[in-house]
Design brief:
The protein is of the alpha+beta class. It has 24 helices and 18 strands.
Length: 644
């Protein structure tokens, strides 16, 4: 690969002030500030909050932790992140489709040895936050910014990181999207450096950043492919064959490195139910409603967004005029594309179904680099106009101090906002712990618990995804219908119980015989109700008896059903043990050569011993078939496994 020495015509910064080594001091201060705010996410005692086993319970963090635990166990057992989980929804496959945001958690728990360790998840989250200034710095330096410009870009990016939209994303558990945005920034910067000064280290950085991005969020990186093509068309003509082959290897190698799970992502796409809008859609599409949309955050966040977008436009123009067209196109078009997608996500339902409104953070992070270049240009212009570096810098500093003093109230609020950040919600708390204790004391693994889900905002706690782990005792783990995904994003959840609606019909419309048939089909032994309508309906059913009063942000009730417990709908079988590695059945006795289980079928299921055949049993009330075993005669023990 030929190397090109940078020249002023190529946009290599030469300003002594901007390239002074003294800029390393404020850059290190930014790293320290990021570390301080990251630690504050874990409460007043960060060491304890970070390293104890209290899980993060806000948003989808509990779901990611649970699936990360399953994925890590499956990785060590079978070398894949996919597995079959019998503990929710009568069995469902944990795949890259559901839930896609658990891949960072998979990695965190794999590094922890495959055990259920909330501390490993929290440490992984903290490390990802600490990567933010490092990747922002790599992006800015790769784009050719001076040390001063790099410091400004990193600072602007961290202001975005701790703004309300990004903090909402952290609370909601959207770490995969944030990590992918940072990886894309770093890769773009490294691509620009690979154009100016091709070398092994920059190529390795392109490969590593791409691998991280594709691993975190493949859809996000797929959207960036047109920008990669624009980069290639912009700079490729001035390089030789070796450079082209190396670039192809770096970009394609990142995809190839993720092929072991991307094939599952493609194969299981059918699992997803029809998408629903994940954010608030605007009733009227006007400038005022777009400006007042909640995706911007509060007033300070809006002001920062406008400042970055306007400055980024000036920075793109400046980059283009100084013959750094590739940088101008990558960061300018990237910021523009994500901004348009974010606004369209709250204005147009088809895009809202894909959650594009969450791309505002990515747009502002991309805008931070050209915006910093614009601000650095203002400082350079001031130096030239005043005839000296110190005089020019003094003018800019005085101007900033004057603005800060003129808006003293806003300055104070801004300093308070960025001096500390609220802690994440840690631990299930005593009230929910009491619910867990009631379930342990009053239920057994021999039947399922029907759990009424309650929909909430993105940041609402989805702690119930941890119920199979929390209710584990010497008798085994409990299995649930509900509690996993109130949004119902896969077909396996369609027979669940959400906000007074049981299997698509209001609970008050269910007749007693219909309830008996439902509870037999899914082997329901207990019901947890939260809504008054659900409590009233099961209280009126003669087969149900309330055995406990529960509390979790409101009163609830636990009902025990007076029916025999059996996972065998036809024939007989004892339920011995069920986890993500296998389902063990004892004393299996067929009826007419068949045993039908209250368990969802999944392609790839196999039985031990081999003479037992696993087949589909179509159920008219469930989109997913049940498991049917072809058994020639009684078998002492049958073990079901799954190969994807």
């Amino acid at each position: 690969m030929e190397r090109q020495s940078p020249s002023p015509a190529d946009g290599s910064p030469r300003a002594d002030l901007g390239n002074s080594r003294l800029w390393l001091l404020p850059l290190l201060a930014l790293f320290a500030w990021q570390g301080s705010l990251t630690l504050s996410l874990f409460g007043p005692d960060p060491r304890r909050g970070l390293l104890d086993d209290e899980p993060i319970v806000s948003g989808r963090h509990p779901l990611h932790l649970y699936h990360g635990y399953l994925g890590a166990r499956s990785f060590f057992d079978r070398g894949t992140l996919c597995c079959y989980d019998p503990n929710f929804q009568a069995g469902y496959p944990k795949t890259p489709v559901f839930d896609g945001g658990s891949r960072p958690a998979d990695l965190f728990l794999i590094l922890a040895g495959g055990a259920y360790r909330p501390a490993a998840y929290k440490v992984g989250l903290a490390v990802c936050c600490l990567l933010a200034p490092l990747l922002l710095t790599a992006a800015a330096r790769g784009a050719g910014l001076s040390r001063g410009g790099t410091c400004l870009a990193t600072g602007l990016g961290l202001l975005v990181w701790w703004g309300k939209p990004t903090r909402d994303a952290l609370d909601a558990g959207d770490l995969d999207l944030l990590l992918a945005a940072l990886a894309a920034l770093a890769q773009f910067g490294l691509l620009l450096h690979f154009d100016r000064a091709p070398g092994f280290l920059s190529w390795l950085g392109i490969l590593a950043a791409g691998y991280l991005g594709w691993f975190a969020h493949p859809l996000f990186f797929a959207v960036l492919l047109p920008l990669a093509l624009i980069y290639y068309l912009t700079v490729g003509a001035r390089h030789g064959l070796v450079w082209h082959l190396a670039l192809l290897a770096g970009l394609a190698g990142a995809v190839a490195g993720n092929a072991f799970w991307l094939r599952d992502w493609v194969a299981y796409w059918w699992l997803r139910s029809p998408l629903e809008a994940t954010g608030v859609l605007l009733p009227h599409r006007t400038f005022h409603t777009l400006w007042a949309a909640p995706l911007w955050g509060d007033a300070m966040d809006r002001a920062l967004a406008v400042l970055l977008i306007v400055a980024a436009f000036g920075g793109v123009v400046l980059l283009n005029q100084t013959r750094r067209r590739a940088a101008a196109r990558l960061f300018g078009l990237g910021a523009l594309a994500f901004l348009v997608l974010a606004l369209a996500g709250v204005a147009w339902e088809p895009l809202g179904r894909f959650g594009t409104s969450r791309l505002l953070t990515a747009a502002l992070l991309f805008a931070a680099v050209p915006a910093a270049h614009a601000f650095a240009g203002v400082v350079s212009l001031s130096c030239r106009l005043t005839g000296g570096r110190l005089r020019g810098a003094a003018v800019v500093v005085c101007l900033l101090v004057g603005i800060a003093l003129g808006g003293q109230d806003h300055t104070s609020a801004l300093l308070r906002h960025y001096a500390e950040t609220p802690a994440l919600a840690l631990g299930i708390g005593p009230q929910r712990q009491a619910v867990v204790e009631e379930l342990r004391d009053r239920t057994t693994p021999q039947a399922r618990i029907l759990w009424e889900d309650r929909p909430g905002p993105r940041g609402a706690a989805l702690w119930t995804a941890l119920l199979p782990v929390l209710t584990q005792d010497e008798s085994g783990g409990r299995s649930f219908l509900g509690g996993l995904d109130p949004a119902g994003t896969i077909e396996h959840t369609q027979g669940g119980f959400t906000d007074q609606v049981l299997a698509g019909k209001h609970v008050s419309q269910w007749k007693d015989d219909e309830l008996r048939d439902y509870c037999k089909r899914y082997n329901v032994g207990w019901v947890v109700c939260w809504s008054p309508a659900a409590v009233a309906r099961f209280a009126a059913w003669e087969d149900a008896k309330q055995v406990a009063t529960l509390g979790d942000d409101g009163p609830g009730a636990l009902f025990a059903l007076g029916r025999p417990h059996s996972f065998a709908l036809k024939g007989r079988a004892n339920w011995l043990k069920a986890d993500c590695e296998h389902v063990a059945l004892g004393e299996v006795v067929p009826e007419d050569g068949r045993v039908v289980l209250s368990l969802h079928y999944q392609a790839g299921m196999k039985a031990i011993p081999d003479r037992v055949q696993v087949e589909r049993e179509i159920d008219p009330y469930d989109p997913i078939p049940f498991v049917r075993l072809r058994v020639p005669g009684p078998v002492t023990r049958v073990t079901l496994t799954w190969e994807n």
